[in-house]
Amino acid sequence: MTADAELLVQLVNPGRLTAVVDIGLGPVRPDPPYRRMLDRRLCSVIALAPPTDPRTPHPPPATDLETHLPYMAGDGTPAVLRLCEAPGMNSLLAPDPQVLECFGQYAAWGQVVAEQPVATRRLDDIAEIGALDLLRIDTQGTELSVFGGGASRLASATVVQTKVCFMPLYKDQPLFADIDEALRAQGFTLHIFDEVQRALIRPMAFHDNPYKTINQGVFCDVVYVRDFTRIGDISTDQLRQLALIAHYCFRSYDLTGKCLEGLMARNEVSPDALGRYVEGMASRMIAR
Amino acid sequence: MNTPISETMVDLLKPAARSAIIDVGANPLAEIPTYKDMLGRGLCTVVGFEPQAQGLAKLNAQKGPHETYLPYAVGDGQPGKLNLCHGVGMSSLLEPNPEVCNCLNVYPLYAKIIGEMWVETRRLDDIAEISKIDFLKIDVQGAEIAVFRGGRTRLSSAVVVQTEVCFMQLYKRQALFGEIDREMRSFGFVPHIFFPTERVMISPLQINGNPRAKMNHAVFRDVVYVRDFTRPDSMNTEQLKQLALLAHYCFGSYDLALRCIGYLERRGDVSAGTMMAYADGLRPR
Questions:
Q1: What is the domain range of residue B170?
Q2: Residue B138 confidence (pLDDT) above 50
Q3: Which of A123, B29, B141, B254 has the most CB atoms at less than 10 Å from its CB?
Q4: Domain that holds residue A191
Q5: Do A228 and B202 touch (CB under 8 A)?
Q6: In a domain, B147, yes or no
Q7: What is the pLDDT of residues B108-119, one digit of tens each?
Q8: Which of residues 78-137 of B touch A (CB under 8 A)?
Q9: The whole model's pTM is what?
């Protein structure tokens, strides 16, 4: 543990590990943002994914802080998992050939090769989940039903990292506006919205590089956080967790500072917490 | 990839008229507009708006043969109060929202109201100087929806809209990206380009005392919408031609231009071989 890490944890004094839930349809995506917290043993992780695609076996958890559960998160009703030519396209929704046909190799990637019935579980009903502070989700279009089935737990979460889509690659897929509305209704605001992943519009093709794109945006990983402009609506425990997650997972040191300011105003941390944090961070405060 | 000479593409597609570009927004002199190259080639007309006399005089002094600038504020047709802010780009028909701005560095200064001006607003559909809209570029600091709804008829034939979208309510009652996205889709558009996000630092932290330093927090970005090219039946021949031309000249979206030309060729609206001729023109020489 670095001196800086000890400093923030000391200042914030969370009293427990940060609770991460990572929901996907396959193995945990590489380089999760909570890696730096795991390395410092500051969080526990529950990863949820159905075990149904034999092409993408899940490696066992690397540490004792990680738990993998073979559950498909959703609204609690039975569903059909579509296994696609490209496992990354697997979804509970049916790919939309009319849209996929417009983009690069998406039509081939989105060919359904098998369909399997799966039970879905509401996030609120999964007993193995204790607290939820950071939710990371990439379920190819069923994010809204996961949020709907996890409303109670989402109400206490402080950060949600989700994929949002701008083109309906699947039939009846909720797009950015739908996800944005659902998360804002739960008290979140958009925090990080960087590079949008692009696709080449067919029939253009670059033979020297099949992955080359021009402008068309298709999807993006975005990060929502508790709306810090209404800090009175954020509980003390949430401010502690948001301070830690913003710092370790996203290097949003300014947001950590805002949380420390809020905690100081409530006398929940020492009155010099922000000053000590800034001092400890001086060498890392590099603007992007 | 070389940009083919302008005449080639216009000769290939034979559009009925020059592309009609409408620029609604704060201070068109402040940035290089995406249509600058197209305007320089004489391939489009531009109608812009500047309600402040001084700004209008400046625009008129510098304009070229295909540009028209009008002294109107564009909106819902009702009189409105233009809040003039310390940050020139912050001036808006909406009132700045201190509750949000005060959580950010530098925005409390930008949002400081230094004056106000009562303006008549005109609906896009009611402005006689506009004959048609192919490309609407808009930057009106939160008042976008009123402009779209006042231009419903003309927007129904437009093929490109470039708009700023915001992720936090810098102004009271401001429509955010989600609401604008729904509105655009209801007009038959889909997002095409996401320009880089403008970020800001959340207060009170600063880096080296620089209030303009940035971290992660996203405030706004420009998004280009285009008519939904996954449903080409929703576009007539002239719309497909205009979309191809604007995609090509304003945004370098050669893939979108090629797709539009493909639809035109399949309909028999351009001669056989046009797609190949366009693609050949894109090859490096």
A1: 6-197+223-233
A2: yes
A3: A123
A4: 3-77+121-280
A5: yes
A6: yes
A7: 999 999 999 999
A8: 99-100, 103
A9: 0.95
